[in-house]
Design goal:
Keywords: Membrane, Transmembrane, Transmembrane helix. This protein has 2 helices and no strands. The protein has one domain. The protein is elongated and about 40 Å long. By secondary structure, the chain is mainly α. The N and C termini lie close together (9 Å). The model has no long low-confidence stretch (mean pLDDT 93). 88% of the residues lie in helices and 0% in strands.
Length: 56
């Protein structure tokens, strides 16, 4: 697996998730915004984990 590509994909997905959470805010209110931000943080966290994990 290409580590840099995986980190980029996680960060890109997290960024898109932040944009979608704004849509969720419009559609579902504050709870949609919070859930969208939590989902984005999962992607950013996964990217951080992949970047700092040992090479295998």
């Amino acid at each position: 697996m290409n580590k840099k590509a995986a980190v980029f994909a996680c960060r890109f997905t997290g960024f898109i998730g932040l944009l979608v959470s704004l849509l969720f805010w419009y559609m579902y209110g504050l709870s949609g915004l919070v859930l969208g931000c939590i989902g984005s943080m999962v992607w950013f966290g996964l990217g951080w984990y992949v970047q700092h994990s040992a090479n295998t």
